[in-house]
Amino acid sequence: MVRDAVEREDHIGSYGTYILIWAALMVLLAVTIIVAKVEVSKYSVLLNLFIATVKAGLVLFFFMHLKYERGFLKGLLLMVLLILASVIGLTFSDVWYR
Amino acid sequence: MEEITAQYESFYHEKGRYKGILSWLMSTDHKRIGIQYLCALLAFFSIGVLLGLLMRLNLIMPGKIIGQETYNRVFSVHGIVMIFLFIIPGIPVAFGNFFLPIMIGARDVAFPRLNRFTWWTYLAGATLVVISLFAAGGAPDTGWTFYAPYSIRAKANITLAVAGVFVLGFSSILTGINFVTTIHRLRAPGVTWQNLPLFVWTLYATGWVQLLATPVLAITLIFIILGRVFGVGFFDPAKGGDPILYEHLFWTYSHPAVYIMILPAMGIISEVIPVFARKKIFGYRAVVYSALGIASVGYFVWGHHMFTSGMSDTARIIFSFITFLVAVPTGVKIFNWVGTLYKASIVGNAPMYFALTFIFLFSIGGLTGLIIGSLEPNLHLHGTYFIVAHFHYVMFGGVGFAILAGLHYWFPKMSGRMYEERPAKIGWFILFVGFNVLYFSMFILGYEGMPRRYFDYPPRYFTLHLVSTIGSWILAMGLAIIAGNLLSALFRGPKAPADPWGGRTLEWTIPSPPPAENFAETPVVRD
Fold first, then answer.
1. Which end of chain A is more exposed for a tag (fewer CB within 10 A), N or C?
2. Which residues contact A58 (CB under 8 A, 6 or more apart)?
3. Phi then psi for A94, rounded to 5 degrees?
4. Residue A87's closest chain B neighbor by CA?
């Protein structure tokens, strides 16, 4: 209980969680490299962008403490991500159909 | 009001730890920073105007005053100075810095030292750009867009100029962060999202655009530098690169940048019109939502700058469609301003003249934007003087006139002096006439096929070029009268009362010029 209270107020997570997230980031990095090397299909770039988004999400939520923030701030971030995704998507509307 | 102004020290007297020029450069006071930015902006604007006049002069006697290469450099530097050093930083850094904290009842911005840092960063970026004009290799000749692959191969000082613009971008991003945080965190009791002054709302929307779009420019410019210095071929077809990718990246920033310029201008107009119409703004929420709408849809229309670039048909159709969407919130704003004027007791002071002219000229700029946002007319008009005319109607007729409206509206508050109304109105009239003679001729020139950026042209275009150049002289005369009137008021004008116009926002409740701390006590706003 005391530990929970500390986590809520000071936003200090356990070493275990941080190591787990770090391991997940390493695995995702490996997947990114494999996808790039293998060149699965024309969707490789899309897949790698997706993996990069998940990695950025993990860093934001756990290392940058986004998970402790209010819904409003998370909403603002979501808006930013949607804009970025739309910009990349629109660029592909040229590249894919050129 | 007399009692308020009787005993206080304005921010001009509160020098802090430093003396002389350092009391300005080292200041973290948002008002001092705003004034410094304003002076720098007006200085760069004057340089830009002089270069513009030189271009117009060349176009009535090509080759007699400047050579072809010099002409390329002159129009490039005109664009770089006007866009990156004047109009993009423009309203937020000058009026935003000065008035944003006051309008929300705060003592300063959220990060005052960061604010000072943005000013220094701006100076550093501007210095790099200025050095690039005079160092060996010569001033940039690429146009303000630095289009690749030419910008990678050109012999002129592109690297230095691009590095300068890169640094200026940081100033813009940090200002955006500062303003968004300030508006979230430092609103006085009673200042809510539902009664936030409209100028502040537009600065908020602009802050987000600065924050999200400018990094794209930064990375694009880094690619240019990498291409020039290390031979990396991102945009060089000879090395497998894609020049159209450059256009995508450049306009992904530079179209939202149009909204960085125009949104705060719309904010000024939304402040000025209700005050001089003696009415509350018609449809406050619609004006707010339309600002947010413009800011968000504005991210997705960049492709309309590239209809003739070789982009895919699918992309061209999508971008043309979204371009029409962005006209909707803009139309809402114009409707609401005109709605505010309906049955109003309009007071015809100089700021109102400039604000009404903004609506007229910006509407022409906006409607011609729809013409070139359509695919077929665009193919005919792209790369002609029609684009130059459209651009100047939006940028000068829009943002420029809004800056002049803001300058005349807030001059008494910023300087503590009143200016003469009559010369201000005479200057406005001459400027208005000169502006239309100068730029409307360009619509016709462009429609008739005169290409932009050309040093010389077939004789059939001469008459319209002559008319346009005469317009540039009239315009310069108008600007000179306006500048002379304000400068003379700065030194000889009578003292300004706290609220000369009957304004309703918080800046009019404090003395002119404001005290260093803005408010003796944190104000409480009630509807």
1. N
2. A21, A24, A25
3. -85, -55
4. B300
Residues B183, B195: Cα–Cα separation, whole Å = 13
Whether residue B300 lies within 8 A of chain A, CB to CB, comes out as yes
Tokens representing residue A63 in the block: 């290392």
For A98, name the nearest residue in chain B, comparing CA atoms only: B312
d(CA B395, CA B389): 10
pLDDT of res. B374: 95
Per domain, the residue ranges of chain B are: 2-509
In angstroms, the first-to-last Cα distance of chain A is 59
Domain ranges (residues) in chain A: 2-95
B276 Cβ contact list (under 8 Å, min separation 6)? B346, B347, B348, B349, B351, B352, B355, B501
Does B315 lie at the interface with A, CB-CB under 8 angstroms? yes
Nearest to B393 by CA among B426, B359, B419, B418: B359
Give the whole-angstrom CA distance, residue B68 versus residue B50: 18
- In which residue are the tokens 């909204």 written? B259
Helix and strand counts by DSSP (H, E) for chain B: 19, 0
B27 CA to centre of own chain: 24
Whether residue A6 has pLDDT greater than 50: no
Size of interface A-B (CB pairs under 8 A): 40
CA distance B512 to B497: 6
Instruction: Look at A45 and B212; give whichever has higher pLDDT.
Output: B212
Question: Which among B175, B169, B179, B147 has a CA at the least distance from the CA of B214?
Answer: B169
Q: Which stretches of B108-157 are DSSP H helices?
A: 112-134, 150-153
- Between the two ends of chain B, the Cα-to-Cα distance in Å is 21
Instruction: Give the least confident one: A1-10, B207-216, B233-242, B458-467.
Output: A1-10
Distance from the B177 Cα atom to the nearest Cα atom in chain A, whole angstroms: 13
SS3 B257: helix
- CA atoms of B424 and B352, how far apart (whole Å): 11
- Reported as a single tens digit per residue, the pLDDT across B153-205 is 999 999 999 999 999 999 999 999 999 999 999 999 999 999 999 999 999 99
Residues in chain A: 98
Phi, psi for B143 (deg, rounded to 5):
80, 165
The residue type found at B185 is: R
The superfamily in CATH containing domain B2-509 is Cytochrome c oxidase-like, subunit I domain (1.20.210.10)
What are the residues facing B515 on neighbouring strands?
B10
Distance between CA atoms of residues B170 and B193, nearest Å: 28
Interface of A with B (CB under 8 A): 80, 83-84, 86-87, 90-91, 93-98
